[in-house]
Amino acid sequence: MTTFPKPKVRPTNPRFSSGPCTKRPGWSLAALKGALLGRNHRQPEAKARLELAINRTRELLKLPPDYLVAIVPASDTGAVEMALWSLLGPRGVDVLAWDAFSRDWVTDIVEQLKLKDVRALLAPYGDLPDLSQVDFDRDVVFAWNGTTSGVRVPNGDWIGGDRKGLTICDATSALFAQRIAWEKLDVATFSWQKVLGGEAQHGMLILSPRAVERLEGYTPPWPLPKLFRMTKNGKLDRGLFEGSTINTPSMLCLEDYLDALSWVESASR
After folding, report:
1. CA distances for 241 relative to 54, 57, 185, angstroms
2. Rounded distance, CA 148 to CA 267, Å?
3. By the 8 A CB rule, do 218 and 92 touch?
4. How far apart, in Å, do the first and last CA atoms of the chain sit?
């Protein structure tokens, strides 16, 4: 097991939750004034607003230029589920778990997808599994930061640069708060309500070219619900990564997310 000392610095606002979390400093309802309400989200002006959120996310996270970003249903959970159900199967899987949410991914992979070649690397609440035991010839599923425990991986150095499998990372409590080794991640997911204090129910899905290659070259043997489908006729549905969402997003929550991104930009100057 790998353990780290408890942090000595505590947040100014003690009212933390797994989500929705506390709003940004100075937030008020005035932040939502420009929301495009009462109209179709596929209307050009609304779609452009969704695409703006995608592009600003890419810029502020400093993603590699060939990584793709989509707004997806059902918060971070939905984004992770899309990745698991769409990508897993061709290789064995190592799944790491040390808090409540990461253990959910073990349940999905073992009990729902019923994959046979699975190694669950578990650690007690508050600890990390032995990262040296991870086999990157296999697909690897892990959380960068445990949402409920706060325990996180130290960095990306433990992830093989010459990996053959995909790395699928639930990064919802890490993005915008911690340094992320993007070159080590093939899939990353997050939600608006964790670090950013946005509203619930919308997820973000980030894909590397290796993940796209898997999507276009592999068809899962199980049925995929509409909310999980990222391909059409064997090719990636590029519209999802340009503001054409699978289902109806909240334009009010979208405006709140854009406000949070503006706060991130101002705080990082």
Report:
1. 8, 12, 18
2. 25
3. no
4. 38
- In this structure, what token pair is assigned to residue 201? 């129910």
Between the alpha carbon of residue 91 and those of residues 70, 85, 114, 138, 168, the distances in Å are 25, 13, 13, 6, 13
CB distance 84 to 93 below 8 Å: no
Q: What are the tokens at 202?
A: 């919308």
Instruction: State CA 144 to chain mean position distance.
Output: 10
The secondary structure of residue 128, as a DSSP letter, is: B
Provide the token pair at 248.
């109806």
Comparing CA positions, the residue from 257, 256, 82, 75 lying closest to residue 173 is 75
| The two three-digit tokens of residue 104, written as one number | 């959910």
| Separation between Cα atoms, residue 79 and residue 202, nearest integer Å | 9
Name the token pair of 15. 């009212």
Cα separation values, 223 from 81, 85, 194, 227, 228, Å: 13, 9, 31, 12, 10
Q: Give the separation between CA 222 and CA 51, rounded to whole angstroms.
A: 31
pLDDT tens-place values along the chain, 269 residues long: 666 777 788 777 776 666 678 889 899 999 999 999 998 999 999 999 999 999 999 999 999 999 999 999 999 999 999 999 999 999 999 999 998 889 999 999 999 999 999 999 999 998 999 999 999 999 999 999 988 888 999 999 999 989 999 999 999 999 999 999 999 999 999 999 988 999 989 999 999 999 999 999 999 999 999 999 999 999 999 999 999 999 999 999 999 999 999 999 999 88
Query: Where would I find the H helices in the chain?
Result: 44-61, 75-87, 100-107, 209-217, 251-267
Q: Is the pTM of this model over 0.85?
A: yes
Residue whose pair of structure tokens reads 């929301």 in the numeric block: 35
